[in-house]
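Regression check, LXAUTJHC case 256:
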Amino acid sequence: MSEASVAVHADADLLAQAVAARLVVKLLDAQADRGQASVVLTGGRIAAAVYRAVAALPARDAVDWSRVDVWWGDERFLPAGDPERNETQARAALLDLVPLDPARIHPMPASDGPAGPDPEAAAAGYAEELGRAARPGHAALPHFDVLMLGVGEDGHVASVFPEHPVHYESRPVSAVRGSPKPPPVRTTLTLPAINTAEEVWLVASGADKARAVGMALAGAGPVQLPAAGVHGVARTLWLLDRAAAADVPPRLRSLR
Ligand SMILES: O=C1O[C@H](COP(=O)(O)O)[C@@H](O)[C@H](O)[C@H]1O
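Current build output:
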């Protein structure tokens, strides 16, 4: 488990641009090392800004997008193409603008997809898809070079919410019913699955995230504050704007 490090940027726009630049470099490094790269996407407002910023970066063309696997950390269980789906937002902001191999884009199932309207079946189906991409000799998951997470005002990450029964799910992918944030039905990677990623990046902007960010970095319990329970194998990086960083313990900050 890696120690958390924190980078703080002046505002949401600079944060999105800095994360976009990091992401392009991370994909390039992974392709140089392994011949391919994999990224786990998140949803939410700052994530969409990051994806737009990647699309606008000239250096994006240095990435061989046909050798990038795209996964999701969570999804709102809605029909395909619904504007509230994390997949729909990521496709519009980035994925439709770069030459990805469609076979390497792995969205979580939609509520009108082949797995049907049952989120438990959808979660099981996604676990199988992950398993098919798993490394020989490893557990049930592929290698994730970088896994990005937004952070909710309540400290949720992906669709793992405070005090939700999903905390006690041992499988890598879970259905989530009764989400306190709409829509109520979702699918999500569980924290143990998230924590297999080489690098986990928690990206948060705005004053309404400050309390959750500060508590997570101060050592809150993961059931009460899920963001406190995630860490990459090699690196855990909190990428914040100044407003979201307001309650970060000063010893952890590196202002940019
Ligand atoms: O519903 C969700 O919200 C969180 C955070 O979104 P934000 O707009 O407050 O940044 C997001 O990380 C998650 O993927 C999404 O399903």
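Comparison notes: The CA atoms of residues 8 and 255 lie 5 Å apart. Residues 42-46, 74, 76, 86, 149-150, 152, 158-159, 181 surround LXAUTJHC (CB under 6 Å). No diff flagged against the previous build.
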